[in-house]
Amino acid sequence: MKKKLAMFSICSALSLSLLAGVPTMKTKAAQEQEHYVIAYKGKLPDKLSESISKAGGSVERVIPEIGIVEATSSDTTFLSTIKQNTNVQSAGKELQAYLETDPDDTINFTPGTPNGQKVTLDPNAENYWDKQWDMQRLTHDGDSYKLNKGNHDTVVAVIDTGIDFSHPDLKNNADLAGSKTFVPGTKDAWDQNGHGTHVAGSIAANGKVKGVGPDLTVRAYRVFGATGGAQQSWITDAIVAAANDGVAVINMSIGGWRWMAHNLDEKGDSASMVAYHRAVQYAIQKGVTVVVSAGNDSKNLNDLHDMQAYWKDNYGLDIKGPSRVAPAQIPGVITVSSSNEWSNNNIAFYSNYGSTIDVAGPGGDNGPLYDSLYRQNPAGNYLDRRDFTYRTLSTYPTYPVGENATTKFSDGKWHGYSYLHGTSMAAPKVAGVAGVIKAAHPEYNPAQVAAAIRKSAIDLGKVGEDPLYGSGEVNIYNFLSNDKSKGK
Questions:
Q1: Is 170 domain-assigned?
Q2: Do 86 and 219 share a domain, yes or no?
Q3: The domain spanning residue 74 has which CATH number?
Q4: Angle between helix 232-244 and helix 271-285 axes, rounded to 10 deg
Q5: Do 136 and 79 share a structural domain?
Q6: Does residue 402 fall inside a structural domain?
Q7: What is the pLDDT of residues 112-141, one digit of tens each?
Q8: What mean pLDDT is predicted for residues 47-60?
Q9: Is residue 104 situated within a structural domain?
Q10: Which one of 41, 189, 205, 394 has the minimum C-beta count within 10 Å?
Q11: d(CA 426, CA 351)
Q12: Largest Cα–Cα distance of the chain, in whole Å?
């Protein structure tokens, strides 16, 4: 499948002057306004705005806890000037991150099975538990709920597109008052995309569908609009804010390969990478467990040649030297690959893998038929061979969202739930497990939470640690059933 060019992007806001009438002489076009990230070595300068202004820019966002500043400038010399400041560790054009979107969906689709049967839900059904193979497996068919469902004092931050706070399966667990948006021009954290609501449901839904911790609290830290990417500083700001708010866990189902290229500056990490590193470490030092998706590109994150060939084949870019995927390869995070329903030996066809994988989470796929065809020829078109029932069912906004809202529900007739697959769906399963572990053991630090997750995982694939599943597939029942404090 040919992927569209949606990798990383340099954020720029065009500042154009429109002149009335027809000019009598040719005028020079206004210089584009660029966004920059500046990482200071220590304490931010006392006269920050003044120093940025003298360099030809203006301050847009300040994250003082980690010494990161977002600035804009139309001055072509701004970057070289600001780098001369001895208090600046790194400065560069701001990178843009993207959601780990559904691996193979087209804009218009009718969810179904290879035999032409539509995938629908009975709105009169008491619940959809029989369709939640992922939760059945994670919870030992619901047995973990009898031991610990989490609690409302334990908050999982969803750094994503927002949440549908009115959803019947989420409204009792979604913290509207504490949620925040970091997207300029928006005033609230309501989901206008769908991605964040699906993620939140996997963590804490409690209704027709259930999450890993049906009594956990989820809080939205919105960094994406209805469409498009998020500037790096929005994400960094959200991580720091969530940590300051005292959340127990952060989930980031954020890519990925769009970040891979050009993450090194001439003297080390780019400013955007420095910001990511600092934000994650800040959160960890505050006691926050950070869970991230591995990405949906079927690539070995340890294989430099594989990564370089990927960029060349898909985007025509020649990338030299080492590269890393963020946030998947940021130190300190729990990186999650995606397992599927039908195999104990192969992760989902789209999932990235490598030594960076800590555990797998059930993120679903298109079923064994599609998988076999894809692995024989990844470039083929097998959209009519997909079986949506092998994906993961979770909450979806009860109102229209996105550019093509009416096409994004399971059959275009019912709202509130959707089948999706991806490492975006795998990561929140692990975040939910982390949340329940923290509810049982609020004294655990992030390293202890991560160790508990790995120790209680079901060993799939090769015996022991392996690059596909890491320590295995996450399982909250395994942890709780062996925990001396179960039931508390």
A1: yes
A2: no
A3: 3.30.70.80
A4: 10
A5: no
A6: yes
A7: 899 988 888 888 899 999 999 999 999 999
A8: 96
A9: no
A10: 41
A11: 10
A12: 83
Number of structural domains in the chain: 2
Q: Give per-residue pLDDT as tens, 246-287.
A: 999 999 998 755 555 556 666 667 898 899 999 999 999 999
462 domain residue, yes or no: yes
pTM of the model as a whole: 0.90
Q: For position 197, which CATH number holds?
A: 3.40.50.200
Are residues 73 and 138 both part of a single domain?
no
Question: Structural domain of residue 156, as residue ranges?
Answer: 129-481
pLDDT tens profile 7-22: 332 222 222 222 233 3
